[in-house]
Design goal:
By secondary structure, the chain is mainly α. The protein has one domain. 72% of the residues lie in helices and 0% in strands. The longest helix is centred in the first third of the chain and has 40 residues. The radius of gyration is 22 Å and the shape is globular. The N terminus is likely disordered.
Length: 214
């Protein structure tokens, strides 16, 4: 006999869910900054090719700008992806687990992740402080490097908080697997993901068709 999880609307969201929702706007903002950085880099790349090919006048410090933008694009979206469980985990083993065994494995994996990210925050901050105190700059245009290095501990701190929320949610379900999931990403098999993508594509097609009708 299996116990069905209680519906989230029966007693309202718990403290883990509320904390996760309060923290989500920061993750969304950081991910938006990463997306804007990618867009700006694409525009700069097009401008660089055009100016260099047509006018023989490339953008000064373009390579340096690309180098400095890497941190924002690589790390600022990590907490957002962790929250959604998107492109951040491998479920070959965990996907086959159920009940307390699943949440024990999730708790252990999240705890290891917290330790690794915590170490990266510590050393990332040290690298930022060293760069700031020495006035480190890029080789070509001599742009200051410390703003880019500061993004690493900031982004990892957001990731650390999200992992802590997921650890609390996993421990909560480890204690009582019958509770509704809060603060954790829900596992979906390949068929569920494919079904959601098909339904989303069909919905967009229907909306577009409805918008073209007189």
């Amino acid at each position: 006999m299996t116990t069905q999880p209680s519906a989230p609307d029966e007693i309202g969201p718990g403290p883990v869910a509320r904390l996760g929702r309060m923290f989500a706007p920061l993750e969304d903002a950081a991910n938006m900054v990463a997306g804007i950085a990618i867009f700006v880099l694409m525009v700069l790349g097009i401008a660089q090719i055009g100016l260099r090919s047509i006018f023989n006048s490339p953008i000064t410090g373009y390579i340096d700008l690309v180098e400095l933008s890497m941190a924002s694009m690589a790390f600022l979206g990590a907490a957002y992806c962790q929250r959604l469980g998107a492109h951040i985990r491998m479920e070959l083993f965990i996907g086959g687990l159920r009940g307390r065994v699943l949440w024990a494995a999730e708790s252990l994996a999240t705890l290891v992740g917290l330790g690794i990210v915590g170490v990266l925050i510590w050393y990332g901050w040290d690298h930022f402080m060293r760069s700031y105190q020495l006035g480190d700059s890029t080789i070509d245009a001599e742009f200051p490097v410390w703003p880019s290095k500061l993004l690493v501990p900031v982004a990892f701190s957001l990731w650390f908080v999200r992992l802590a929320i997921q650890l609390a949610g996993s421990i909560r379900l480890l204690i009582n697997p019958a509770l509704a999931p809060e603060g954790v990403s829900v596992h979906k098999d390949v068929s569920e993901v494919a079904k959601e993508e098909i339904e989303g594509a069909l919905g967009e097609t229907i909306d577009e068709a409805a918008g073209t009708k007189p």
